[in-house]
């Protein structure tokens, strides 16, 4: 045990490698969860599940919008619980990382809209910009040579 005088708390230092790797794996899985990460961005702790059904409904609505834009699996995608991860929806692609911010902002407006109309308008403008950027990233640009070969 380590006594932290600043906060008057005790911190247990663990030396066992397997316990640390299990904790790291649990944290990594939690960080990849769509529901958990949206809850975190909304300021809701993972353990508080009272709003999960509402959040899942809003997240799935936004996932449907993204599917219409051309992002995600062609057959569509929805989450059911904490087990559904970002990599289930989009591959590990840095081009579409801002999908997470987009989903958060849309869910925030649906679930817990700001009181200020200026903040709402600003958020809507950011959503519009992200929507445009997501469409550009999701729609592969063909070179002139690829365009000519596609007509053959």
Write the layout of secondary structure elements.
Blueprint: E1 2-4, E2 9-11, H1 17-32, H2 34-42, H3 52-69, H4 86-89, H5 98-111, H6 117-138, H7 144-150
Antiparallel strand pairs: 1-2
What does this molecule look like?
The structure is a single chain. The longest helix is centred in the C-terminal third of the chain and has 22 residues, at 117-138. Residues 1-7 and 11-31 have low confidence and may be disordered. 59% of the residues lie in helices and 4% in strands. The chain has helices at residues 17-32, 34-42, 52-69, 86-89, 98-111, 117-138, 144-150; strands at 2-4, 9-11. The protein has one domain (2-150). The chain contains 7 helices and 2 strands, in the order ββααααααα. It has a two-stranded antiparallel sheet. The chain has 152 residues and is mainly alpha-helical. A hairpin with a 4-residue loop joins strand 1 (2-4) and strand 2. It is globular, with a radius of gyration of 20 Å.
